[in-house]
Fold these 3 entries.
Entry 1:
Amino acid sequence: MAKAPALFRLILQVDDLDRASEFYAKLLDDPGRRIPRASRHYIDCGPVIVALVDVAAGGEEAKPNPDYIYFAVGDLERFHARATDLDCLSEEDVHGVSAAEIVVRPWGERSFYVRDPWGNRLCFVDEQTLFTGR
């Protein structure tokens, strides 16, 4: 059987790279690194790089990703506290329950949801409860 390709980078469009790198440094507790001459800021998230890309530098409007990006974390409460401090907890419901609250979802994951200032939707999941379909 052929080996599946490996995902190595995921792009989040922003319109203010300094503001975005500061926001994500606080949320993810990692300052990441600026990519010179590229209007990018990279944050290593396991084997995948989250790339903040300032599309406004090229005259475009930042567009949010169409669906959630999921992060597995060891200390869900700590991430929730930082998201609360950043005032970015989701105002949506997930299966009739607040997305902003740490709860066990119907598929067994303990999680909460966030929306960044550019409309990108994120979910933080307790790494001990990941549902991988296996």
Entry 2:
Amino acid sequence: MKKFSLSVTAVLAMSAFAMAGGDIEPIVEPVAEVVIAPVADAWAGPYVGLQAGYIWGDADVSSYWRDGSEAYSLNGFNVDGFTGGIFAGYNWRVNNDIILGIEGEWNYVSADDTITENEGIDGEQWSWGAKVEQKWDASLRLRAGKDMGDYMPYITGGVAWARVESHGFTSWGSSDDHDATLTGWTLGAGVEKKIDDNLHARIQYRYSDYGDDTWQLDPNNDPDTGKIEYNAHMLTVGLSYRF
């Protein structure tokens, strides 16, 4: 009897609330919108930097008679000195950890070496020789690296240019000066370290074979043509800013 009375009371109460126009609305707390900001890629995108280091090269200078035979040669110039310059490039992320890019650089170079040969002929001492100088280096290269968090080891290669000067001299007064922009290829490797998302440091080694150049000698000299061959190693440290 008590259960029946409670049920009737509940039904009557709900009916009265409905007749009074009451609405039962659930209480729902508003949910704050969560915005996820995109994460900047520290390795992809454009960059520009400065670098400095040491360069050591090997040069051979020779001359040839009009019939093509070699007149003389001076081999093994150890052209070494300072280098410093600028570089810039752009990187693309091709998957989770592989970075591909293109980079160009230009470096001032202060490096030279001189070789002098002496020979006694008919009781007299004669000497001749040459000085080889490199003035600048430039390259346009592709890069491929692996993202390892704060580090990216990479390999690089492409085309290279060098401004090289040869100054020949003899004890009997003749001389020959020649300037040439040599074109060749370059290969290298390096490691880049992320200091923060914008600032990176790196160390890089490159070997460049700049090829050779042949030129016409002074008509007053006996040999007809001169030739220079040149290659160099370059080790640099650099600092770059990424945009």
Entry 3:
Amino acid sequence: MDKQKENKAIAKETPKKSHRKSRSKRYREAQKLISKDKFYPLAEAIKLTKKTSVSRFTGNLEAHLIVNQKGEFGEVKLPYSTGKQKRVTIADEKVISAIKAGKIDFDVLIASPKMMPKLLPLARILGPKGLMPNPKNGTLTKDPEKAMAKFVKAGLRLRTEKKAPVLHLVLGKLDQNNKELTANVRAVARALNVTNIKKLILVATMGPAIKVNLQSLQE
């Protein structure tokens, strides 16, 4: 990676919301609890993420990682729920009508080969969202029902951004116990291989970023 691309990747290591010019009083107070130059042990980082969350709702535990290279790292089965259920549907006339009307209430669209001619005119809508069925990821298949069952049970896909070796993941809800959140983070670290991780930052849906000591991922 050249210097320009590396700088762009590092710039994305924290959520975009961190670049806002003004911050609420609650956010500024939470930020005082964190040392910008410190890399916290995982267990402590998770506790701080909860403590510094400033949302009025139960936020997510987000993980932002910089790794050594761009690409896909497969899927990982997390030991505990992330609180986010993947919505999977099979293309039929009703679903197609809903898409044409601008209603997309699914995360994965599965189709049989005979339905593809009807979906092709919708490629401009589905394509940019990564929802167009295709045989490479198993969403275009002769047995949609079987594929649907597989996707519902599927793990978390580990894939970097297209232009930078950066991953943005939701690994749980902040009202989960620390043991569950810790186990989910470590499961992702093992799947990526800790030696391939250059930086890991934890952050609440609304809250300041917390740097994690990578050695603590293996403890």
